[in-house]
Design a protein that fits this description.
The protein contains eleven helices and twelve strands. By secondary structure, it is α/β, with parallel strands linked by helices. Bound molecules: iron/sulfur cluster.
Length: 361
């Protein structure tokens, strides 16, 4: 009886989400020079048992994105996880560094009709990409993606759609000129360019494009030229603005209609507030650089999926208040302005000038 009432209550106030992002691994086979993953104290996979706790809530979303601070293909349960979601009519995707895409893995992803395969790039030449995404090899990644194309053609399948995820840096920006050609060659149908908004080392500050004020006209004109080329080739091209806005009044992430589940089941509004980034076991907290100052990463969890229902977590007062701060539609009418959430005070996503072309998967 008690369980029955809990189920009914769970239906009331259930969120309507665009996606649920699930961190299925914090292990990685690479060591990208900007990524916090190598600094994590504990590296682990999400167990299938914990993942299955999400099944009752899959009805709240259209898309499940299996992504966090790690390489999803290192979790051997990934195929079962995809299968569970597909069996419930969900779209499923993940982003990979592309190094583990062999024939067997590709065949399984195609057969499961995995919807989206994002592949991370930080350049279109091997020397640039491999320097930034250390431990990966662009030549091998391209070979793997050619194999993906062949296997899809052999099986007569359109799955998975290939999305190229290009990390814009000051020193790799010029190579964006080649990204449309590369996308065409690999049969990609979407290119998404993002900024480095979590800066782990002082030496990397100058690589964040939004810090290079004087080069902004160049960045914008090149992005517009690439967007035009992509349109001609019928490719979707989306990019985050390379310019900072003025005020901390919005978040460029979709926090009002999406949530992140950490590798241990903690629910956060975004990957930047994920408890994964907090070093436990007596280790020092991770720090990052924000506007020339060192700042700790503040973890923010509203509950654990292993202990509470997603509906209950989503409707907690603290979580509602957090979303209310960023819900632009509501803030217009709010009489008592909320203080900026502590975890967002040192986040570039709160002052990005917004997305151009949209970043919906
Ligand atoms: S502004 Fe806040 S909610 Fe948005 S990405 Fe940054 S830390 Fe997350």
């Amino acid at each position: 009886m008690g369980q029955w009432i809990t189920k009914i209550l769970d239906k009331i106030g259930s969120p309507e989400l665009d996606w649920i992002q699930v961190e299925i691994s914090t292990r990685c086979n690479a060591a990208c020079i900007y990524c916090p993953q190598p600094l994590l104290h504990k590296k682990q996979n999400m167990g299938f048992k914990l993942f299955k706790q999400l099944i009752p809530y899959l009805g709240y979303t259209d898309l499940v994105y299996l992504q966090g601070w790690g390489e999803p293909l290192l979790n051997p349960d990934i195929f079962d996880m995809i299968q569970v979601c597909k069996a419930r009519g969900k779209r499923v995707g993940f982003t990979t560094n592309g190094m583990l895409l062999n024939a067997e893995t590709i065949c399984r992803l195609v057969d499961l009709e995995t919807d989206i395969l994002g592949v991370s790039l930080a350049g279109t030449s091997p020397s640039t990409h491999n320097r930034i995404r250390m431990g990966t090899d662009l030549v091998k990644i391209i070979g793997n993606l050619e194999q993906l194309q062949q296997i899809k053609a052999q099986k007569g399948s359109l799955y998975p759609a290939l999305h190229l995820a290009y990390l814009m840096w000051a020193s790799n920006f010029h190579e964006l000129k080649e990204v449309v050609r590369l996308a065409k060659k690999l049969g990609a149908d979407q290119i998404v360019c993002s900024n480095m908004t979590l800066i782990m080392k002082e030496t990397l500050c100058q690589e964040a494009v939004f810090t290079q004020q004087e080069k902004q006209p160049y960045f914008i004109s090149l992005l517009e030229a690439v967007a035009q080329e992509a349109r001609k080739e019928n490719l979707i091209f989306a990019y985050k603005s390379p310019v900072l806005g003025n005020e901390s009044v919005h978040c460029s992430e979709n926090i009002c209609n999406a949530c992140v589940v950490s590798v241990t089941g903690e629910i956060s509004p975004c990957v930047f507030t994920s408890p994964t980034l907090s070093q436990t076991d007596g280790q020092k907290p991770l720090v990052h650089i924000f506007q020339n100052r060192t700042s700790p990463c503040y973890p923010l969890s509203f509950g654990n999926i292993g202990q509470e229902s997603l509906t209950r977590i989503w409707n907690k007062k603290e979580y509602r208040q957090f979303r209310k701060f960023y819900d632009i539609a509501m803030t217009k009418f709010v009489m008592d302005p909320q203080p900026v959430p502590k975890s967002c005070m040192s986040c570039y996503n709160s002052i990005m000038a917004g997305s151009i072309g949209g970043l919906r998967a």
